[in-house]
């Protein structure tokens, strides 16, 4: 075990407080996490209303039973209720006008402290500005903005008047931004003049003007540079139905046009109260930091965290510059208590040889949430050795689809290295085989959810008949949500994520998860990144190549190949050892740092690059050129022999 709560720490959690309310209201004793989880999925209407009441979410006409219709898709939550996301954020300003709400940091050492009072005032002022521009509750406000306090203000102001928010990071290519935002038909576009990244000023005015010109419905480009000069206005909040659109997030778009995923005001508020307020236990004294860019759903956890009353820290700069452990430096500077970051980032700092706990004051930090990809056991151990021995390191798995987590951390159970602690409250998780039956502990199967969650999408944008939505999650079995992840349950009630099921490796009829291979390679410092593919051959054969990107100054020689094969065999199995190992100049990744196994596999199966890969979804699109050439060569030659 790498982290264990004490009885004293458990009884100080928000979950323990909720436990008392549940006992008083329903006469149920929930003395451990498994019993809490079982009650949350067998009585979802009671559970979610208990979460609402405990969090103090405000609105009109809430029923005692949150779930009026449990069909999927199409669940009905609080059919008569009306509420507003921003109003529920700003309730925390009452009596705390001078307390910190947002701490804005930048690469130049600038510190911009936003009190709850200032935040409330600027949200009201920008809401009035949007109304002046003709924005109403059925309109979309789109942004091309970095991770700054002003971006949060724009999002909250949009939601306050009942309009729908969507944002793209300015480091996206113009074509990728337009591809996403044009389909939303926004009434206005919001931008800023720029930000500093890796020591240089990134001027974004030209990009925003070009995007504005490509959006025929956008009447005005509004910049946030003069936000403090806007006249003050009285706060006004339009209370909307529970499922009224709050924001539109986008799928990665690696295999086609990005899909607009729409979430509702009420569902996101409930999920934030549960995930941030209960699973992680954040409250009024906490500070939360993530360096996510605004196009990754992790950025949305910033306004979500404000909704439970915690302060948040923003940073638009480079999280690995000038030193790889820059995020931990920010944690120390800001007094952050919870850091949300990517598993790939933690692995990068591990390989750098730096020890953040020795270099920075991390005394305030009590929780690290790792997401985006599987956290390898070696990195897990490194965090407790080189960052902070007693930090609660939680590996979480969820997605843009629900803007939350399916499995991850809680404050009541111990953490076992290499395992996610278990399913989140309210997630009716099952691990299923191809025939729909549940698999035994230790066996790999599909991550499925058999009952609705409030933050499941209210729909996809421009998918009026729901066909795209059903195809995405309910095609395999119309009665359950199939997420596309391969997982297994452990004897300790934990969960192991084995990778995406649509990128599953299949060696001699045995399904293998790519995550085990990546975890093994994470222990080899000279490997910067890697991707493994499973290619079905026309002759019925199967080719499993491994492509590796190496640190500067290193070459892929026979000795390194032997080290790679030996490490994978020892840490995974002989079946996981690739047929070939090839050096590449770079591994294509999305803007969220995720590998794109499926599009690359399509290249090797003969799909033209323009149909296989959406280059606009990638942070390094030029790296695809090498794979395109290699895929062409592989189809012209016989299957390479296994090394």
Walk me through this protein's architecture.
The chain is an alpha/beta fold and 643 residues long. The protein contains 21 helices and 34 strands. Strands 5-4-16-15-17-18-19 form a 7-stranded mixed sheet. A 4-stranded parallel sheet has the order 7-6-8-11, sandwiched between helices. α7 links the parallel β6 and β7. It is globular and about 70 Å long.
Key descriptive features of the protein:
alpha/beta; about 650 residues; 21 helices; four-stranded parallel sheet; globular; single chain; seven-stranded mixed sheet
Q: What secondary-structure arrangement, pairings included, does this model have?
A:
Elements: H1 7-11, H2 14-26, H3 33-42, H4 44-55, E1 67-69, E2 76-77, E3 82-83, H5 85-90, E4 100-105, E5 111-115, H6 116-132, E6 140-144, H7 149-160, E7 164-168, H8 174-181, E8 188-191, E9 194-197, E10 200-203, H9 205-213, E11 220-223, E12 240-241, E13 245-250, E14 260-264, H10 265-279, E15 287-290, H11 301-306, E16 311-314, H12 326-334, E17 338-342, H13 343-352, H14 356-359, E18 367-371, H15 377-387, E19 392-395, E20 397-399, E21 404-408, E22 422-423, E23 429-432, E24 445-449, E25 459-460, H16 467-473, E26 481-489, E27 495-500, E28 505-507, E29 510-512, H17 514-521, E30 527-532, E31 535-536, E32 542-543, E33 545-550, H18 558-571, E34 580-583, H19 597-604, H20 609-612, H21 624-636
Parallel strand pairs: 4-16, 6-7, 6-8, 8-11, 15-16, 15-17, 17-18, 18-19, 33-34
Antiparallel strand pairs: 1-2, 3-12, 4-5, 9-10, 13-14, 14-25, 20-21, 21-22, 23-24, 24-26, 26-27, 28-29, 30-33, 31-32
Helix pairs in contact: 2-4, 3-4, 4-10, 6-7, 13-15, 17-18
């Amino acid at each position: 075990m790498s982290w264990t709560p004490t009885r004293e720490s458990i009884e100080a959690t928000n979950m323990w407080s909720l436990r008392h309310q549940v006992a008083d209201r329903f006469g149920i004793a929930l003395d451990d996490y498994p019993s809490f989880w079982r009650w949350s999925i067998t009585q979802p209407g009671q559970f979610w209303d208990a979460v609402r009441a405990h969090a103090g979410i405000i609105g009109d006409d809430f029923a005692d039973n949150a779930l009026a219709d449990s069909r999927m898709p199409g669940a009905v939550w609080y059919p008569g209720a009306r509420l507003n996301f921003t109003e529920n954020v700003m309730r925390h300003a009452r009596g705390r006008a001078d307390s910190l709400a947002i701490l804005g940091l930048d690469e130049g050492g600038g510190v911009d402290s936003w009190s709850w009072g200032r935040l409330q005032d600027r949200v009201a002022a920008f809401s009035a500005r949007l109304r002046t521009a003709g924005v109403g509750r059925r309109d979309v406000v789109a942004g091309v903005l970095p991770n700054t306090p002003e971006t949060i203000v724009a999002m909250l102001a949009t939601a306050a008047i009942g309009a729908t928010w969507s944002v793209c990071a300015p480091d996206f290519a113009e074509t990728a931004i337009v591809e996403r935002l044009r389909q939303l038909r926004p009434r206005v576009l919001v931008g800023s003049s720029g930000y500093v990244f890796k020591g240089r000023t990134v001027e974004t005015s030209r990009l925003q003007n070009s995007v504005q010109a490509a959006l025929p419905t956008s009447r005005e480009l509004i910049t946030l540079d003069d936000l403090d000069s806007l006249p003050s206005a009285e706060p006004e909040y339009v209370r909307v139905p529970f499922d009224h659109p709050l924001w539109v997030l986008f799928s990665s778009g690696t295999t086609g046009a990005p899909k607009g995923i729409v979430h509702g005001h009420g569902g996101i508020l409930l999920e934030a109260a549960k995930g941030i307020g209960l699973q992680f236990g954040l409250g009024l004294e906490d500070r939360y930091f993530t360096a996510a860019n605004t196009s990754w759903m992790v950025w949305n956890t910033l306004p979500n965290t404000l909704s439970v009353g915690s302060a948040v820290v923003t940073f638009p700069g480079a999280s690995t510059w000038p030193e790889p452990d820059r995020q931990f430096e920010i944690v120390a500077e800001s007094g952050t208590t919870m850091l949300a970051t990517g598993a790939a980032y933690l692995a990068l700092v591990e390989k750098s040889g730096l020890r953040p706990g020795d270099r920075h004051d991390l005394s305030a930090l009590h929780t690290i949430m790792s997401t985006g990809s599987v956290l390898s056991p070696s990195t897990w151990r490194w965090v407790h050795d080189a960052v902070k021995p007693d930090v609660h390191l939680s590996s979480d798995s969820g997605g843009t689809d629900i803007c939350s987590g399916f499995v991850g951390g809680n404050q009541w159970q111990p953490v076992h290295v290499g395992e996610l602690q278990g399913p989140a409250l309210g997630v009716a998780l099952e691990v299923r085989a191809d025939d729909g039956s549940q698999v035994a502990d230790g066996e790999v199967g599909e991550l499925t959810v058999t009952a609705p969650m409030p933050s499941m999408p209210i729909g996809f944008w421009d998918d009026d008949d729901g066909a795209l939505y059903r195809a995405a999650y309910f095609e395999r079995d119309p009665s359950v949500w199939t997420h596309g992840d391969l997982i297994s349950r452990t004897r300790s009630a934990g969960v192991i994520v084995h990778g995406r099921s649509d990128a599953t490796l299949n060696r001699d009829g045995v399904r293998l998860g790519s995550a085990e291979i990546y975890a093994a390679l994470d222990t080899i410092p000279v490997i910067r990144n890697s991707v493994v593919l499973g290619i079905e051959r026309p002759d019925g054969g199967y080719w499993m190549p491994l492509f590796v990107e190496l640190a500067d100054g290193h070459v892929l020689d026979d000795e390194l190949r032997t080290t790679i094969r030996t490490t994978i065999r020892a840490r995974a199995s002989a079946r996981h050892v690739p047929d070939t190992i090839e050096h590449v100049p770079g591994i294509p990744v999305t803007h969220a740092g995720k590998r794109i196994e499926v599009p690359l596999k399509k290249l090797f199966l003969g799909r033209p690059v323009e149909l296989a890969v959406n280059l606009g979804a990638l942070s390094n699109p030029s790296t695809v050129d090498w794979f395109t050439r290699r895929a062409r060569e592989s189809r012209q030659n016989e299957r390479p022999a296994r090394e």
